[in-house]
Amino acid sequence: MATTSDTAEMNGKAEVSSMPKNLWFIDGETYDLTEFMPKHPGGAQYLVFPGNDVSITFWSYHKDPERNKKVLDKYKVNIPDARPNRWHLPDSAKFLLPEDFDARGDIKIYNFDPKNKDLVLNDCRSRILNPDVQKNLRRLDKMFDQHVMYMRWVYLAFVVAWLVFGIPWYISTPAFAVLRTALGGAGHYFTHRTQPNFASST
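User: That's the sequence. What structure does it adopt?
Assistant: Structure tokens below.
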């Protein structure tokens, strides 16, 4: 198994541990998703931090996690000594947590039983997966795409007018703020939709 040496300060002592480099963890099981990354419908960007326990993300972000779990079965590996990262955040975000934080024990374990109809998450999922709701969501997504396209053309036209004719700052500043914020929000939403899959199906 490919590993990387991770040194962390914990209680004033240096803790040296061997962290998985190319593994992901779900419900205590270990997966090597390297080959699956380019095939991930949500985009490979959500799997760029290997070594983490992604159980919460897996069960809460997917509309049919039971089916998704079966898809991942082919990527399951048996490495008894593999453990998730102590830190589940990139180095730049570690300041957000206490120095003695350990994701392996400090993060609460939730009940994601997909057969438990009393769970709020499962109730929400069943409502969203209703065929009528799905149809309406597709309609709203189409309307959203159309409005984003309109905003893009408005933004480009405004930039041209700003460069060619000159627009006073008290008009251009709020206009740029509104348009860029709207387009930025649209881009963020697009990243959470199914991404084009250019990977080979084989």
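The chain has a mean pLDDT of 84.
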